[in-house]
Structures are given as C-alpha cells and as structure tokens.
Write a structure and sequence with these properties.
By secondary structure, the chain is α/β, with parallel strands linked by helices. The protein contains 5 helices and 5 strands. The protein has a single domain, classed as Glutaredoxin.
C-alpha cells in the first residue's frame, strides 16, 4: 500500500496531469463588440432622439422567441450601419411606460425614427433584406 501511495503522485506528475499545479485558470471569453445600445430609462432614449442621427429602436422581451430570432439580423445590420444610424434596444417588459408611449402591441417591434419623428415600423420576424430596405429608406 505504501508503494502505491508513492507511485500515484509520480505517475500523475510524469503523465502531465496538472493536479499539483497551483496556476489559476483564466476563463476564455469570446467577446463581440455590440453596436446596439441598451436603453434602461426614458431620459436615455430622449437623449438619442435629440441627435440628428437617425435611430432604430427595437422593443423586445427576454422571453420572446421571435426577438431571439431577429437578434442576429439586428446585430449584423447595426455593425454595418452604426456610423450612420443609432441602434437602440429596449426591454418592453422592464419599461412598460415607454412601450405604451410608442403604442407597442407586439414584440419585436422596430421603430425607424428620423428628426424625432417615427418614419416607419416593423413588427415580428422579417427578412434581413426587408429590414435593410427600411434602413435605406430611413437614410
């Protein structure tokens, strides 16, 4: 038994096992820089609406499957057009007053705003091409 207790640490050491290593493991995190700005209060939204830059506001909820389906398209278009348009995201269930103010009846809803005026709106899941056509009309 004593020999076995002596050999196990040697076997672990020579096998390359990091059992005895005291190095702290650093978690590997892949980060993607988001061009979508999360809005958490009405004042923040008002700030972006005052700029001359057009705005697209996405109203969503965390439990909405259609919102999750549209997220990659919205993110992709935000990355493509972020220099010309501000892409905003609002969680409608956390800010119900804003959802009421803009008469949001379903999610996801995308409002296309220019010069503080609603120019267009999309509701539900739409194709990337249809979404991009609306962006081009906004510009």
């Amino acid at each position: 038994m004593k020999r076995l207790c002596f050999f196990i640490p040697l076997i672990l050491f020579f096998s390359g096992c990091d059992f005895f290593s005291k190095k702290e493991s650093v978690p590997q995190v892949k980060t993607m820089v988001s061009k979508v700005i999360k809005i958490d209060n009405e004042e923040a939204l008002d700030k972006y609406l005052q700029y001359k830059t057009p705005v697209i506001v996405k109203f969503e909820t965390s439990f909405c499957s259609a919102c999750k389906d549209m997220a990659p398209i919205y993110q992709k278009l935000a990355s493509k057009y972020f220099k010309r348009i501000n892409f905003l995201s609002i969680e409608a269930d956390k800010l119900p007053d804003l959802a009421d103010k803009y008469q949001i009846l379903g999610v996801p809803t995308f409002l296309f705003i220019k010069d503080n005026q609603k120019m267009d709106q999309l509701v539900g899941v739409v194709s990337e091409k249809e979404f991009e056509d609306k962006i081009k009309n906004l510009l």
